[in-house]
Structures are given as structure tokens and as C-alpha cells.
Design goal:
heterodimer, A: alpha+beta, Aldehyde Oxidoreductase, domain 4, 3 domains, seven-stranded mixed sheet, 33 strands, globular, B: alpha+beta, Uridine Diphospho-n-acetylenolpyruvylglucosamine Reductase, domain 2, Enolase-like, domain 1, five-stranded antiparallel sheet, five-stranded mixed sheet
Chain lengths: 743, 334
């Protein structure tokens, strides 16, 4: 294989993005376009008693108003993660089918007008009278009715994970750390609010959608509308960030399609920033408790990890919090449990680092406390306990944790750290350092992934797969994979995506995108190369006639014998002589079975230095170091960007991000970026990212484990541990607001 | 968005006449808050009168000392004006910490004085709010009130005044010049901000159609050593949890003059007069600073989520005074 893979290639779509030529969904303009606006419920529970649309209908430019009284009845939605490859509504409830209101922000009417502004204004004139019922929107309100969930994630995962005898081992443990933590809800806040444009033509539907999975949008809309998949096409050129908010297909997508059918014109539905807080899921408010039992010399003997969180009235949803705590460290006795409170929110959803963003915070904070308790260096405690096998006794598909920890320690300057809290000061600031291990599960429950490669007789190629660019750099990385697979220079290959007419790829979620898409693209590109090599060795006029295909390689579009580089010809020469205008090959990859006998985690290590003003309670990160072992890195430049972004997400999670329900109204307290704080440039410290190289032959053909989540996981714990080191104060709540940190 | 008309005024008289005769109209200057509120549906004007063409952007030295700042001077222009930096560094610092570069290039001084509160219940256009819909109640009293005020509150409103530069201006006894339908007048800035009391929807003693044309800051030697400290959850793009404007004149170890004002904790930009009264004549020591801060904050009314602000403000005041000692104008034997 030549060298495009692993090179820090600039983004192929960079010029389009910086010049504004890249079209995002809400920027697509079609002839006769109309615009839809959602009227959202202002109460959290009850029913719509009366909808008076009189004033709205009289407003200028209004074409139609749809309510539960006239919206067609749809098939029932059933929650399932989009990666599974079936219809993926974000919740098992579709609004406007009846008069019931389950959560504030639920669509109760849809206004279509001839401009976005007029639709918004008319929506504000729709007068809805509610019959309000009591609501539950916080854990505190529903605590008494909490129940143990059986399965999570739309039934995909068990809610309980147990081995050994935890209670006995805990009781006999020489040392115990047992602490409870609380977490405010999080919202994704991608810079691009969700938008959908729907167009009908002769009974067939085309949807332009801001999604992390065009195929999931297609499957979901087709299922809800009872249409054949062949009549639903989804196109997505660029997405302005997802972070999980566009991983599932929320009601607005199908509402846009219904509105377009109703008015007989294209409809664009752009959610407002405010509506994004109630339209695309969130990370649920939650509490976790983790008890660890250990020996005096720092061996874990028992762990009990519990999560209590709030879900919707219709789904048992919790991000699974125990996927890492159950297997990162060797511990013979383990119990993980998830309990739920049913509340009046929409179904929560994946949020970057789903489950483990919080689960690993708890785990790695507790490990820091244990290290402090035992007087063992926190890093050494991790190394000492890191499991050689997963919870089922299977070896890791690839590891790298210790290398990440050691290399990170070196980059950060961890050695020689004085572990005594409050031992460094700089003016008004106390200085502290902290670290955490990071790990994130590698999901393999996607269906077969497919791609297609076509080579023209002039030596240029188009490689296609039905995925979409949402900021990760997938167009660039897949161009590299395709070029290497075909043996072509980068400039001769164009990677095409963003259309369900292309071969199937699943939603890019759970850090699975790079691994599964590269597998299909690699398969297609190498299949086409092999096809042309076979043509050459069978062609009596080819200099390669009769050669063993195993001895042949293709570089820069030239097919040669490896041992005799002078002997060969170009793809173009071969194809022209054989009267081939083009050649094409499909490629596919089916993931290993779910019971594949390997532990599947991606590992990393996080280090942070913080300054804390103990009088005022402010925490400022001064520098962060992350070292990761994500298997093969397709493009170190885009991978690094994703990891830096992930680490800054972790900073936000630790210090700033949180939303709380006002239980009196059942509405979120923050519904704008002025109220829901995310870090800004001024908050970003110096961030160092590096990789530990490793080969993984299990997860997929190129050994790619992905970088979408791992950069974020563990950061909050490293920061929290640094805050403890700086101040001696352990903050067990996120975000770590000033009032929790101040002396 | 609610439909509205837009007109551009060429002269002050025209602007005042237009707005004062249209009951649901308002002036539009930088628009950095106003346009937000219009889009949210919180501001429900039928007409916006753009005043950006009016000749009100100058920053001039006054003959007897002091400064006259035109109402349309942009925050950035004022923050970088040499005479502001030299004579009133606290004003320059408050402006620079008050908004992002982009906003500072757009937002005007007159608009800044009039900016509306950031209370989420005020801005959500749904919740009961006495400021938005008089008589509906205050959702923040028993709601999410972490960012809310602890000084100057009432049973009807506890929203924090968000301005930074206004904190410096109240400390320096600025005056606000206006022209309204009944003519020109001068309003001392402390009178320009009304406590919420029973009428939180009335924030300023302005007639409808009365336009701020300038802000005058009197000559004030103590201000040369002034300092503005702002503490907030994130480093930029964020309002203060607490901010402190401090300036001291110290002679022979005793405070002869002091200016102290607070942001982020009051329903108005808060002049800490009780603390100032205690400090004048007192030794310039940490003990005096702490006692004065405590006296000022003794009047604090705390709610569920903002109770920490009393201690936070106490520490911030002490730190502000402490740091002002470094730049204080000293006299006599040291």
C-alpha cells in the first residue's frame, strides 16, 4: 500500500467551506420553495384543548396550517439506534397524531408560508389552549417512582451487568471509596441547527436533510409514511456538526415531508436555536454512584456502579454508563445497574461520548480518590489494575492504554509531581494537575457496509458511498483510502457521498464512521484494482501477461511487477487497449459477529493542568495533553482536529455545560447559547494531542478504531482531579460551577 | 418574526418626533440587544427608527475637565480613546471586558446604558415576568435564579442589570444628556436606573421618544487609578457573576476618597455607597475593606441559587480594593 493513508492531507472540501461555496441544508434553494415553522407546546404534560389558527391563517404569506386534527396518521415509530441500520426515530412517539402533550417543545402545529420569517411570525399567532396535567421533569420529582430498567438503547443493551459476588467482596475490602455524583443535562449545540427540505415529484420524495445518517433518514421517513425505500431519496452535502443530535431521525424530518405533500411545493423546515433544545434529544439529567473496594496495595476487588436518570414517557432510554467501568480494570466482582425515572421530556439521545463521557468521569474520579487514599501515584494505580482481558475473559482486539499513559505522562511532565493538594500557587491562583485513563467501546452492530469504485480510461476514479460530511473530514480520509486501494495519486480520485442513491453506509455515530466506511471503500477500491490486474495478466498484449497477480502492485496508476518495476503499464493503457471506457467494482464489509472473542475498547490518556481561584471559585485550564491509541489513523490532521475538539468538549462538560429543568413549568432553563455556556476560544488552553501507534486486525480491514468520542472521554475527570490537586476540594457535580469550587 | 417598519432618521429632532408620536416605536442604534429581542418577540415594536446617521459619535474633552461621550460612540472607540484610558481606566477596562470585539464595534454607549436584562424568564416570551408582562409575576423568585441580583431586588423582579460600563459610570457620577419631546434635560446616572420596586417594567425615567444624546463624566482625579475586575463563568462572551469598579485616594495610609460600584449583583449598576461611606477616613487595610464590603452586602436578599453571591461579592470587593491600592493615587507620607 502506498502512502496516502496516514498523511496529514488538507481537507478536500476546505476551499468550499472557507469560501462559502459549501451548501448546507438550510441554504439549499429550490424553485417554488415554501417554509415551515413549528409551533411548540409550552406545557410539559396534558392535552391540546383548543387550537385557534384564525389569526395565523390571516397572516400574510401563509399557505397552510397543520395540527393533530389534520395531520395524516403515520406508522408507529420504534426507537432503535441508527447504527443498527433500520428505521431510527429518536423516540417511540410521533407528535401531532393525537391531542396529547408529553413534553414542552413538542410540535403541536406546523405553519407553512412563503418565507421563513412569515412562517415564524404566523406560528407565533397560533393560539393554543392546553389542559395541563401534572408533570415530572427532574429526577427529584420522580425519584420515588424510579425503577430498574431491563434493557437500554432501544433494547440493544442489557441494563444490568454483573459478575462475582460484589456485596461480599465490598464488605471485605481493605479500602473503600464510595461516592455519589450529580450531572446536569447537556445539549449538543451543533453550530448548524437541524434543517430539512422536502420535495415531492410524482409520488417520490427527495429530502435534503441535516443528518449524521442519510440512510437512517431514508429508512425512518419511509417507515413512518409507509413508502417503499426506492421512492425516498435523501441528499446531504454538508452538515454543520452533529455530536449525536443528528444521529437519530427526529419528527421534524417527516413533518417537512408531510407539509410538502400537503402544499404541493417544496418545504424547508429550519428549527430555531431555541427549538434545538427540545427537538433533537439531549444528554439526560443523571446521578451516578460508584463504590470501589481495593486491597491496601491497590488492587481492585469489587466495584458497584449505579446510574439513575430521567427518560421520556415512552422509552427506556439511558446512555449506558458502565461499558468502560465494567472492563477497563481487572476486578473479579462487578455490578453495573441502570435505574430510570419516567418524566416529561423527549427521549434523551446520544451525546458525544454517549454514556462514557459521564461513566468514565465517575470511574476516573473514584480511581483518583483511591490513589490519594492509598498514597499510590494515580497513573501507576491505572497501570497496575488495567485488565489484560475484557469482562468475558477475551483479549483486547488491541490495547495501548499503558503506552498512552506513559507517553502522555512524558509529554505532560507528570513525573516528580508533588501529590499533596494545595501545594502550588501562582498569585491568586492555585495550580493543580490531574490525569485520567480514557476508553470508549468499539461498536460493531452495524449491517454490511458498501461502496462502489469506478475507474475511467483516462486514469481518474470516482469512489462512492452513502455517507455524509459533518465536519469529521470523512471526504478527505476516504479519498485517501480510495487512492491507496486503487494505487492512484490523490488528485486522480474523487470521493462522492451524501446521497442514498449511492451504496449503503450506516449512520456515522459511536466513533464507527471512519472504521466502517473505510472498510467498504477499501474493499471497493481493491476489488477494482484486482479486477484490472486480472485483466492485465490475462491479456496477451500486456507486459504483465501471465504474471502471478500476487506479485503485482499498482502505484500512481501504473501496474507493475513488484520485483521488476520496469515491467508494466498504466491503467489507461490497459483499458484503452481492451476498449474499456470505464471499469467498476462494488465492495462491501460485514462487521465481525457480536460474539467476536475480543475485548473492544479504544484507549487513551488525558492530562490537565488547571488554575483555580479558590476565593472566587473559578477554574481555568492551563494546558491539556491527550494521547490516544485509535488504531490506524487515516489522516492525522483531521484526526487531530477531532481529538482537540473532543478535548475541548470535555473542558466544557467539566466546567460550563449544564441545563436544568424548571419543574414548575417543565421547561429547560437555558434555551440559547447565551444561557447554555460552551467554552469559547478564550477558555481554550494549549492542547497537545499525540498518538500511540498500534495494529488492530479485528475491528475492520484497516484497523481503524475511530476518534469521534475518545478525545472527549476522561477529560472532565482529569480536570476534576486537577481541581482536587489544586484545592483539596473534590467536586462531585458537573459542571463544576464557581459556587461548588470556592472555598 | 413580527413584521415591523424601519425608518432612518437624519436629524435628532426628526428621530425624537417620530418615536414620540408612534406609541409602539423605538430607536435603533447598534441593535446588538434590540434586534435579538425583536426576533425573540420580546420587543414588540411596529417601527424602528434607526439613529445611526445622527451626529452623536464624538468623544470630546470638556473645557473644565471631564469628558463628553456621544451616545452613538461605539464601545470600542471609547475603550481605546486615549483620554478615557488615561483619565478613567476603569471605563476602558469595563468596556473591553463587556463584550466581544464584534459587539464592541457595533454597540453604542447610549444603547449600552439601555440594555435589557438577561433573565431567561424575561427572554423566553412564555414564562410569567413582571418586566415583560406587568402583573404576571416573577418566575425567577422561586426559579432558576443563579445569575440574579442580591441587591436592589423587590418581590416583583430580581433580574440583574447586565452592563459593565454602566458600573464604572455610576462610580464616577456620570450624567446622561437627553433630548425628548419636552426638550433637553440632564439626568444623574444613578437616577437614570430605577429600582424594580413594584414597576420592574419601568427601567429609566425617560419619556417615550426621549433620546440619549451624550454621557458626561466629570473630572475626577481618583478615577485615574480606577480598576474594573470582572468574574464570570467563562473567559469571554459572558456576563459577570460579580464585577467591581474600585478607585482609591490614599493619604498617610488613610483613605481620603473612594469609588466603589458593583456589577452582576444588583438590579441596577450598583454604587456601593454604604461601603464608600465606611471607607472614607478609614485606614487602607484589608480589615477596612472587609468591613466595608460586609456593610454593603448586609442588605443582600438571597434566593435559592444565588446565595453564594454574597460571599463571592464580599471577596471580590476586598480584592478589587486591594488591587486598587496598587494603582491608587497616593498622597502624603507613605
Amino acid at each position: 500500500m502506498s502512502s496516502a493513508i496516514g498523511s496529514p492531507i488538507d481537507r478536500v472540501d476546505g476551499p468550499q467551506k472557507v469560501t462559502g461555496a459549501a451548501r448546507y441544508t438550510a441554504e439549499i434553494v429550490l424553485p417554488h420553495m415554501t417554509y415551515a415553522a413549528v409551533v411548540a407546546a409550552t406545557v410539559a404534560s396534558g392535552r391540546v384543548a383548543v387550537i385557534d389558527t384564525g389569526r395565523a391563517r390571516g397572516a400574510e404569506g401563509v399557505l397552510a396550517i397543520l395540527t393533530h386534527e389534520d395531520l395524516p396518521k403515520l406508522a408507529e415509530p420504534h426507537l432503535l439506534p441508527s447504527l443498527a441500520g433500520a428505521a431510527a426515530p429518536g423516540q417511540s412517539f410521533f407528535p401531532m397524531q393525537k391531542d396529547v402533550v408529553h413534553y414542552a417543545g413538542q410540535p403541536v402545529a406546523l405553519v407553512v408560508a412563503d418565507s421563513h420569517e412569515r412562517a415564524q411570525y404566523a406560528a407565533s399567532l397560533v393560539e393554543v389552549t392546553y389542559e395541563r396535567a401534572p408533570s415530572i421533569t427532574t429526577i427529584d420529582e420522580g425519584r420515588d417512582a424510579a425503577y430498574e430498567a431491563e434493557r437500554l438503547f432501544g433494547g440493544l443493551l442489557p441494563a444490568r451487568d454483573e459478575r462475582g459476588d460484589v456485596d461480599t467482596a465490598m464488605a471485605e475490602a481493605e479500602v473503600r471509596v464510595d461516592v455519589a455524583y450529580r450531572f446536569a443535562a447537556n445539549h449538543h449545540n451543533a453550530i448548524e441547527p437541524a434543517a430539512t427540505t422536502a420535495v415531492w415529484d410524482d409520488g417520490r420524495l427527495t429530502i435534503y436533510d441535516s443528518t449524521q445518517g442519510i440512510r437512517a433518514s431514508q429508512l425512518t421517513v419511509a417507515q413512518l409514511l409507509g413508502m417503499p425505500l426506492s421512492d425516498v431519496r435523501v441528499i446531504t452535502h454538508f452538515v454543520g456538526g452533529g455530536f449525536g443530535s443528528k444521529a437519530m431521525v427526529w419528527p421534524h424530518v417527516t413533518l417537512a415531508a408531510l407539509a410538502a405533500r400537503h402544499v404541493g411545493r417544496p418545504v424547508k423546515l429550519s428549527l430555531t436555536r431555541q427549538q434545538m433544545f427540545t427537538s433533537a434529544g439531549h444528554r439526560e439529567e443523571q446521578e451516578q454512584q460508584l463504590a470501589i473496594g481495593a486491597t491496601r496495595d491497590g488492587r481492585l476487588t469489587a466495584m458497584h456502579h449505579e446510574k439513575l436518570s430521567i427518560t421520556s414517557p415512552f422509552d427506556d432510554w439511558a446512555e449506558p454508563a458502565t461499558g468502560v467501568s465494567s472492563q477497563l480494570y481487572a476486578c473479579p466482582n462487578y455490578r453495573g445497574e441502570h435505574r430510570l425515572v419516567r418524566g416529561n421530556t423527549m427521549t434523551p439521545t446520544f451525546t458525544r461520548g454517549p454514556g462514557e463521557a459521564v461513566g468514565v468521569f465517575v470511574l476516573e474520579t473514584a480511581m483518583d480518590e483511591l490513589a490519594h487514599e492509598l498514597g499510590i501515584d494515580p497513573l501507576e494505580l491505572r497501570v497496575r489494575n488495567h485488565a489484560a482481558v475484557d469482562g468475558h475473559g477475551n483479549p483486547w482486539s488491541s490495547d495501548g492504554l499503558e503506552e498512552c499513559l506513559r507517553h502522555g505522562a512524558e509529554l505532560f511532565g507528570w513525573a516528580g509531581r508533588n501529590p499533596v493538594p494545595r501545594s502550588r500557587r501562582d498569585g491568586d491562583w492555585l495550580i493543580g494537575t490531574g490525569m485520567a485513563a480514557a476508553a470508549y467501546p468499539v461498536p460493531l452492530f452495524m449491517p454490511t457496509q458498501r461502496a462502489r469504485a469506478r475507474l475511467y480510461a483516462d486514469g481518474s476514479a470516482v469512489v462512492q458511498a452513502g455517507t455524509q460530511e459533518f465536519g469529521t473530514g470523512v471526504l478527505t480520509a476516504m479519498t485517501q483510502v480510495a487512492a491507496d486501494g486503487l494505487g492512484l495519486p490523490l488528485g486522480s480520485v474523487r470521493f462522492e457521498a451524501g446521497d442514498t442513491d449511492l451504496p449503503n453506509v450506516s449512520s456515522a455515530v459511536g466513533s464507527a464512521g471512519a472504521g466502517m466506511i473505510s472498510a467498504a471503500v477499501h474493499a471497493a477500491a481493491t476489488a477494482l484494482r484486482d479486477q484490472l490486474v486480472a485483466t492485465a495478466v490475462a491479456d496477451a498484449d500486456s507486459p504483465l501477461h501471465g504474471a502471478d497477480p500476487a506479485t503485482i502492485e499498482v502505484r500512481e496508476g501504473r501496474i507493475t511487477q513488484r520485483e521488476y518495476p520496469g515491467v508494466g503499464e498504466t491503467y489507461g493503457e490497459l483499458m484503452q487497449r481492451n476498449r474499456l471506457a470505464d471499469a467498476e467494482a462494488p465492495g462491501s464489509w460485514t462487521p465481525p459477529p457480536l460474539d467476536t472473542p475480543h475485548g473492544l475498547l479504544t484507549f487513551g490518556a488525558q492530562f490537565a493542568e488547571v488554575a483555580v481561584d479558590p476565593e472566587i471559585g473559578l477554574v481555568r485550564a492551563r494546558r491539556m495533553v491527550g494521547v490516544f491509541a485509535p488504531g490506524r489513523v487515516l489522516n492525522p490532521k483531521t484526526a487531530r482536529s477531532q481529538l482537540v475538539g473532543g478535548m475541548l468538549w470535555g473542558l466544557g462538560q467539566a466546567l460550563l455545560e449544564g441545563n436544568r429543568m424548571d419543574p414548575r413549568h417543565g421547561r429547560w432553563g437555558a434555551t440559547s447559547l447565551g444561557e447554555y455556556l460552551v467554552p469559547v476560544n478564550a477558555d481554550a488552553p494549549e492542547v497537545t494531542v499525540d498518538f500511540v501507534e498500534l495494529t488492530d486486525t479485528v475491528v475492520n480491514p484497516l484497523g481503524v478504531k475511530g476518534v469521534g468520542e475518545i478525545g472527549q472521554v476522561g477529560v472532565a475527570a482529569a480536570i476534576g482531579n486537577a481541581v482536587f490537586h489544586a484545592t483539596g476540594r473534590r467536586v462531585r457535580e458537573l459542571p463544576m460551577a464557581a459556587e461548588l469550587v470556592m472555598d | 418574526m413580527r413584521p415591523l417598519s424601519y425608518r432612518r432618521a437624519a436629524e435628532i429632532g426628526e428621530a425624537v418626533a417620530t418615536v414620540s408620536t408612534e406609541p409602539t416605536s423605538a430607536f435603533l442604534a447598534g441593535g446588538t440587544t434590540e434586534v435579538d429581542l425583536v426576533r425573540l418577540g420580546v420587543a414588540r415594536h411596529d417601527l424602528l427608527v434607526d439613529i445611526n446617521d445622527l451626529p452623536l459619535a464624538d468623544i470630546e474633552n470638556l473645557p473644565g475637565g471631564g469628558l463628553r461621550i456621544g451616545a452613538l460612540a461605539r464601545m470600542n472607540d471609547v475603550a481605546r480613546a486615549a483620554q478615557v484610558v488615561e483619565m478613567y481606566p476603569g471605563i476602558a477596562q469595563a468596556l473591553l471586558l463587556g463584550a466581544s470585539e464584534q459587539l464592541r464595534n457595533m454597540a453604542t454607549m447610549g444603547g449600552n446604558l439601555c440594555q435589557r436584562v438577561r433573565c431567561a424568564y424575561f427572554r423566553d416570551n412564555v414564562s410569567p415576568c413582571n418586566k415583560r408582562e406587568p402583573g404576571t409575576g416573577c418566575s425567577a423568585l422561586d426559579g432558576q435564579n443563579r445569575g440574579h441580583a442580591i441587591l436592589g431586588t423587590s418581590e416583583h423582579c430580581i433580574a440583574t442589570h447586565p452592563s459593565d460600563v454602566a458600573v464604572a459610570l455610576v462610580a464616577f457620577d456620570a450624567v446622561v444628556h437627553t433630548i425628548g419631546p419636552s426638550g433637553a434635560r440632564i439626568i444623574p446616572i444613578e437616577n437614570f436606573y430605577l429600582l424594580p420596586g413594584r414597576t420592574p417594567h419601568i427601567e429609566h425615567p425617560l419619556e417615550h421618544g426621549e433620546l440619549i444624546v451624550a454621557i458626561e463624566v466629570p473630572p475626577l482625579p481618583v478615577a485615574r487609578g480606577s480598576l474594573y475586575l470582572k468574574f464570570r463563568d467563562r473567559q469571554s462572551y459572558e456576563f459577570a457573576l460579580v464585577s467591581v469598579l474600585s478607585a482609591l485616594l490614599v493619604q498617610d495610609g488613610r483613605i481620603t476618597e473612594v469609588r466603589l460600584a458593583l456589577g452582576g449583583v444588583g438590579t441596577t449598576p450598583w454604587r456601593a455607597r454604604r461601603a464608600e461611606a465606611q471607607l472614607v477616613g478609614a485606614p487602607a487595610t484589608a480589615g477596612s475593606f472587609a468591613a466595608a464590603a460586609a456593610a454593603e452586602l448586609d442588605a443582600a436578599v438571597l434566593h435559592e441559587h444565588n446565595a453564594f453571591k454574597q460571599e463571592l461579592a464580599q471577596r471580590a470587593i476586598v480584592r478589587g480594593l486591594d488591587q486598587a491600592m496598587v494603582s491608587a493615587v497616593h498622597g502624603g507620607a507613605r
